[in-house]
Q: What sequence folds into this?
């Protein structure tokens, strides 16, 4: 297993106390040196490549020069994942040293060595599917991959997708340059915003958490008549005032006769103000004596009266389209005269689970693994504001995939697995065959590099292809599916925010990393409310793992090269972590 995917040493006998289990996940996470390792050991993804860095040192330790008759050294014991070593022709990276150890010059009868995959989250080289068997199963080990690919370009450029024609994948398919993570999110957001707008009318009781499909215009003045703002006395003219017999004015009653000058009448909060009333005097600011009412302080014209239309006039726009319907919005809508609200219809999503190796129940056995994505994707999409159908399990059947795609009536199709270039990775081939348009084909992000975004022909559904590795699929959900669904649902994108990270976080040389984190507040000084907020990176952040993300409340966006402790990083909230109880981001 690559060093970035697993614990940084053997399990400890120490059992953390209930209060520090999240911290213990961090304390032995993959960027920390294991017992017996040098403390300054660098993550393979952070090792420099390119000019001036001999490939023989790619593993972090010098080796003697190759001598005639030497056989290529086979890797032994724990060490850097070949997937993280530079490969292919390029400045300072001799092809003979691609594996990190010197090799003898090729002989006339030698077969060319297969180039290892440069992706930090890729499995080891060998035959098979490029995003399996970690795909869908959080407890799987790496399966070999025989798909050679080009190393990330020197100078910090994004990496390229492998040429499938040399990988047993899509014959003759061109290389596609992976777009940056931010560019991919922007493409997905714009795509969703260009989607057709569908609205529906829902009763106030059913509209909670939805998004207004039209501006909310007042159907009446608010308030619709002059009302008393306080319990007290309605008075007309200057005082003292004669107290009118016959009881007071209560809320909910019709208009009373005009109040003559020099008279006062008791009035309740919310009651309609009679004509000719000049002010309301609060009960505690007046006293009675011999049938007269005296004010204990000066009285101004219109005091404690809410005039008609004070809050809004009929026809005035109260809220714009795209506003999330909160309890306060429901109250405003009711006050403004609404019984139903026009809201955006929730996007409909079909979920297609690919892979012959997946089990839906029981323990893994005989090379089969549990499907971790099928149970997770639907609720995650619901938390993003979508209406997801139960997952369809298609195995590795290209014909079944094509039938499911061309027969879908959803707004969005989400596939899991099959997005790379292995022999049973059918997503690209089927999309080519049906004439789909690829908007994003590979993203410079780890994990999740082979995600894609497409539009099916004739203005058909959008398609987000997720990698099969579980955490890589989460990366695809937050990178492509979330922004796309936000646009389709009419939601306004949240402003990004940044929080300091507690510890050093290693980065990829060229790609963005998404690292599970948990928010914490440092202990404050005595007598204060607390310290500054920060995030703690969590362990178990390999592409095939879910343990870290299950304990997280967000993902840190780590730029290429990594960040030092104390640096502020952008945070992607998980859809339920920042959700209030009434929004679509909860599981009720």
A:
């Amino acid at each position: 297993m690559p060093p970035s995917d697993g614990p940084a040493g053997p399990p400890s006998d120490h059992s953390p106390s209930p209060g520090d289990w999240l911290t213990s996940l961090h304390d032995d996470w993959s960027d920390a040196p294991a017992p017996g390792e040098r403390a300054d050991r660098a993550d393979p993804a952070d090792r420099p490549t390119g000019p001036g860095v001999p490939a023989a040192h790619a593993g972090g330790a010098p080796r003697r020069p190759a001598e005639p008759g030497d056989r290529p050294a086979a890797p032994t014991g724990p060490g850097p994942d070949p997937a993280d070593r530079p490969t292919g022709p390029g400045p300072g990276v001799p092809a003979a040293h691609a594996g990190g150890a010197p090799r003898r010059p090729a002989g006339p009868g030698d077969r060319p060595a297969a180039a290892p995959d440069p992706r930090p989250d890729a499995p080891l080289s060998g035959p098979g599917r490029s995003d399996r068997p970690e795909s869908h199963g959080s407890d799987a080990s790496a399966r070999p991959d025989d798909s050679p690919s080009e190393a990330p370009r020197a100078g910090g450029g994004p990496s390229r997708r492998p040429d499938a024609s040399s990988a047993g994948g899509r014959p003759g398919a061109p290389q596609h340059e992976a777009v940056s993570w931010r560019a991919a999110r922007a493409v997905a957001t714009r795509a969703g915003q260009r989607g057709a707008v569908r609205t529906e009318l829902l009763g106030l009781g059913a509209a909670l958490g939805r998004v207004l499909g039209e501006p909310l215009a007042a159907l009446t003045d608010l308030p619709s008549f002059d009302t008393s703002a306080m319990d007290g006395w309605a008075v007309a003219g200057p005082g003292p005032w004669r107290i009118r017999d016959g009881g007071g004015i209560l809320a909910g009653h019709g208009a009373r006769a005009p109040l003559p000058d020099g008279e006062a009448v008791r009035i309740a909060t919310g009651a309609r103000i009679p004509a000719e009333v000049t002010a309301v005097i609060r009960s505690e600011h007046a006293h009675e004596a011999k049938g007269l009412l005296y004010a204990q302080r000066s009285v101004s014209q219109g005091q404690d009266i809410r005039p008609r239309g004070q809050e809004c006039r009929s026809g005035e726009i109260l809220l714009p389209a795209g506003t999330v319907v909160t309890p306060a919005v429901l109250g405003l809508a009711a006050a403004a005269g609404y019984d139903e609200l026009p809201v955006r219809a929730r996007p409909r999503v079909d979920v297609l689970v690919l892979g012959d190796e997946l089990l839906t129940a029981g323990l893994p056995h005989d090379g089969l693994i549990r499907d971790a994505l099928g149970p997770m994707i639907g609720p995650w999409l619901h938390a993003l504001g979508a209406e997801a159908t139960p997952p369809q399990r298609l195995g590795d059947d290209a014909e079944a995939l094509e039938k499911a795609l061309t027969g879908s009536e959803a707004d969005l199709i989400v596939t899991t697995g099959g997005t790379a270039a292995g022999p049973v990775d059918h997503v690209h081939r089927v999309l080519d065959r049906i004439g789909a348009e690829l908007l994003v084909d590979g993203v410079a992000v780890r994990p999740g590099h082979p995600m894609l975004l497409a539009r099916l022909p004739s203005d058909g559904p959008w398609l987000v292809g997720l990698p099969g590795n579980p955490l890589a699929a989460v990366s695809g959900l937050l990178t492509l599916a979330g922004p796309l669904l936000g646009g389709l649902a009419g939601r306004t994108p949240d402003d990004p925010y940044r929080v300091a990270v507690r510890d050093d976080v290693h980065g990829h040389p060229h790609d963005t990393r998404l690292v599970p984190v948990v928010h914490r507040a440092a202990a404050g000084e005595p007598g204060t409310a607390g310290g500054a907020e920060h995030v703690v990176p969590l362990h178990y952040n390999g592409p095939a793992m879910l343990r870290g993300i299950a304990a997280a409340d967000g993902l840190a966006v780590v730029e290429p090269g990594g960040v030092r402790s104390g640096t502020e990083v952008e945070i992607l909230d998980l859809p339920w972590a920042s959700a209030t109880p009434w929004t679509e981001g909860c599981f009720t």
In short: The chain has a mean pLDDT of 76. The longest helix spans residues 470-488. The two ends are 38 Å apart (CA to CA).
